[in-house]
Predict the structure.
Amino acid sequence: MEVDAAAAVADWLQEAKKIVVLTGAEISQEAGVPDFSDPRLNPHIRDFRENQNIRKEYWKKLSEVYPQVSNIEPGPSHRALSELEMLVNLDCIFTQATDGLHLRAGSTTVIELNSSMLWVTCTSCGKDYPLNEILSIVENGTEVPICTECGSDQIKPPVSFPGQPLPHWEAREAWIRLHNADMFLIAGASLEHEPIASYPFLAKENDAKVVIISEKQSPADDFVDAVIYGAPGQVLTYILSKMKEGITIT
Ligand SMILES: [Zn+2]
């Protein structure tokens, strides 16, 4: 970790009037959340709609994985960002994760860009179900659960599968909040795909300070104010400790 860069970021965070944070899979994995990019858990929407075997596989795999997810506690990044909210002008956290861990860590304004895997929606009639309820039906032997309201077997968590756009309200809200931000902190997120790939550039156009913390390189790294390569939980915890010490870079 670059200690000087982390101290500079601590300084910027204290000065900023409106900070928007983006997080993603790296911080979920730090907490022990399994990788949801497994094709059985992330099928193309066309295959899910048209192929009953794909739906069977999806529910089988989700019922295997979910019990692990439901017992996971927020990780170091979730805890650090929740604490950060009390120290700086944090407007909101938007996240690519679907696990609800920011909310469990106590962060108050969280926009889930890919929605949430903790509930299930009928794509025919719109009825919502808690995920637990649907998985208990699967565990009792129903391979493809159906909507009790309308009988459709096209029910799924509202998360975006490949081939589906981001949920409209969430993407729009993120865009608006980013327009008004003077600092954009990106921690453990993926910047590979649109529209999120454009977010750092949008923030730069608005003269916001943009910081990326990640183990991985991204296409935006050369265009932002600071990049800190390292485990986001470790870096954020360090930044927080610098802020508490009151150390600033002049
Ligand atoms: Zn229905």
Remarks:
- The first strand starts at residue 19 and ends at 23.
- Residues 122, 124-125, 127, 147, 149-150, 152 surround zinc ion (CB under 6 Å).
